[in-house]
Amino acid sequence: QVHLVESGGGSAHAGGSLRLSCAANGTGFNINAIGWYRQAPGKQRELVATVTNGHVTNYAKSAKGRFAISRDNFKNTVSLQMNNLKPEDTGIYYCYAEYLSSRGTLDAWGQGTQVTVSS
Questions:
Q1: 64-109: per-residue pLDDT in tens?
Q2: Do the beta carbons of residue 94 and residue 108 sit within 8 Å?
Q3: End-to-end CA distance of the chain
Q4: Structure-derived torsion over alpha carbons of residues 11, 14, 15, 17, reported in degrees to the nearest 10
Q5: Are 36 and 94 in contact (CB under 8 A)?
Q6: Alpha-carbon torsion 35, 7, 1, 28, what sign?
Q7: CA-to-CA distance for 23 and 21, rounded, in angstroms?
Q8: Judging by DSSP bridges, how do beta strands 3-8 and 18-25 pair with one another?
Q9: Are 63 and 51 in contact (CB under 8 A)?
């Protein structure tokens, strides 16, 4: 079983930057894709950005050009650099991983970290 541990987040003013990091802990797994989703108050959880083990990235339209996702396959970590933040980026950010294990292909979610952007 994979356990995702998030760090980073916090508060920033519009135009500022924040960095999120996530580490996947456990044994006997290979991560296919890993990345970030967010949930704003009163809204559904949505994709922010993901990256595959081949470093193919997928960004939400709102994140393109402002956010950059990167992963370290050896360390099983992923980071999200968020620049030019906007108040609408406010929400709880969840690390997500799709991974292969002896039990097949499974999903894991982190506990979430709060990002608040003030105008």
A1: 999 999 999 999 999 999 999 999 999 999 999 999 999 999 999 9
A2: no
A3: 40
A4: 10
A5: yes
A6: positive
A7: 7
A8: antiparallel
A9: no
- Cα torsion through 29, 96, 5, 42, rounded to 10: -160
Question: Are the CB atoms for 37 and 102 separated by under 8 Å?
Answer: no
What is the C-alpha separation between 92 and 8, in angstroms, rounded?
12
- Tokens coding 104: 């097949």
Helix (H, G, I), strand (E, B) or coil at 90: coil
Angle subtended at Cα 44 by Cα 77 and Cα 55, rounded to the nearest 5 degrees: 30
Size of the chain in residues: 119
Determine the average pLDDT of the residues in 24-53: 95
Single-letter amino acid, residue 113:
T
- 10 Å Cβ neighbour count for 6? 20
